[in-house]
Design a protein that fits this description.
The radius of gyration is 22 Å and the shape is elongated. By secondary structure, it is mainly beta. The chain folds into 2 domains: 88 residues, Sandwich (Immunoglobulin-like); 189 residues, Jelly Rolls. The strands form 2 sheets. Strands 2, 3, 4, 5, 6, 7, 8, 9, 10 and 11 form a 10-stranded antiparallel β-sheet that branches. An 8-stranded antiparallel β-sheet has the order 15-14-17-18-1-12-13-16, with helices on one face.
């Protein structure tokens, strides 16, 4: 399922003392849990200190069951007004999983084991979450876990739109919910959890963001909707009318490289090379990223 993602970017009023810095941080998992339909009310054994983080559609003793997962990170090291440029989730195969002898690793035995990652929208605790009281999640923005191409595949998944959603909706965001797309048995992902004894196999989230700091008079904020972001097709569009507005585009060093008037509520930026840019419309400024 392919979706067009409309991404809201924070726009700040320009004033004296405006300062922006691009940063990259690596976040460790703050909590994660497996939710297993075979044990719908069971907690602890599968939720805490369990080295595997597995997404399953399988059978046991003739009974079909589903295993989903929830995972959260501590985003407090990133300022709440930061603009998320890129976020990559790293998930590693767990060769020590007790299911390896039965499943042989990641499995697409009955068909594609591709999965979904969604934004979790209700609170949960690692020590008490179960399959029956699993937290709610939003399917508005979905990121795919591609079908595995090998039994021991590690993954780097671009979850930028999900992390942007988390920062746009901080009061009802509680990490990620993951599950296999098709509920048909003999499909599996065998990942390592945050409790795996090998620290190198624990999940990680790599986030690149623009940190906005301001002087005391730099307080007012507005919003402008631009899409897509990052831009890969050469056209930047606006979801609200900015027809005939004068614009300036600055590079990451702050030099003006392009000016003109908005036509057709979109902007042709085909000539821009890959990188981070600032778009100035009147007294507002926002960021966009051009991909190769």
């Amino acid at each position: 399922m392919k979706k067009i993602l409309h991404l809201l970017l924070t726009v700040s009023i320009l004033s004296t003392g405006y300062c922006q810095t691009e940063k990259t941080v690596t976040l460790d998992v703050s909590k994660d849990a497996q939710l297993i339909s075979l044990y719908p009310d069971r907690e602890g054994d599968f939720a805490v200190d369990y080295a595997s983080f597995e997404l399953l559609e399988w059978t046991k003793d003739g009974t079909t069951f589903t295993t989903t997962g929830v995972m959260d990170f501590d985003f407090s090291v990133i300022h709440e007004d930061a603009e998320i440029i890129r976020a990559d989730l790293k998930l590693y195969y767990n060769p020590q999983s007790g299911n390896v002898p039965y499943m042989g690793g990641h499995s697409s035995l009955s068909g594609s084991n591709a999965g979904w990652i969604w934004r979790t929208t209700s609170a949960w605790e690692e020590s008490s979450v179960t399959y029956n009281n699993d937290p709610s999640y939003s399917t508005v923005t979905a990121v795919e876990i591609p079908q595995s191409t090998s039994a021991d595949q590690d993954y780097v998944i671009n979850v930028t739109p999900l992390v942007q959603d988390i920062f746009e909706n901080p009061d009802n965001s509680f990490g990620f919910t993951m599950k296999i797309q098709v509920q048909q048995h003999y499909r599996a992902f065998l990942f390592a959890s945050s409790d795996h004894p090998n620290l190198d196999l624990r999940p990680k989230l790599i986030v690149t963001y623009v940190d906005v700091t301001a002087s005391p008079d730099h307080i007012a904020k507005g919003r402008l909707s631009l899409y897509p972001n990052p831009v890969s097709g050469g056209i930047l569009q606006f979801s609200e009318s900015v027809e005939s507005s004068q614009y300036s585009i600055l590079n990451a060093q702050g030099s003006v490289i392009k000016t003109g008037d908005i036509e057709g509520n979109q902007l042709n930026i085909e000539e821009l090379q890959a990188g981070i840019y600032h778009l100035v419309l009147g007294s507002t400024r926002s960021h966009f990223v051009v991909e190769e």
